[in-house]
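note to self — DONT lose this again. spent like an hour looking for the file last time. sequence + predicted structure for the chain T wanted, 109 res
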Amino acid sequence: MTNLPRHRALALLDECTGDHVWSTAHCRSRRVPDSWIEELADAYESGFETDSATLYTSTGVTNQYHGVRDFDLAIRLGRLLGIDVERHQATHLTKSAIVTAIKEALADD
């Protein structure tokens, strides 16, 4: 496991919403470990059926985007910080609700 200081993990988790895909450049600028970026990065395609399935950039809608889902990053960070993320995944319906539950579990510590 990557040695990531707790304060860095908490700062990264605070930026996660469960709804965004971070570019690899953004991940590096936020000091996400390179090994995590390599493992979690993928090409995502827009699903134009719903707004929540459509990918947006600063220039508008895009068909494809290569990056890291902040949901996956939040899961990795939650595990690193000792949170039972599987329990939250089993009890919450949306990615954003799971990320919020992980953050709340840390606040309750």
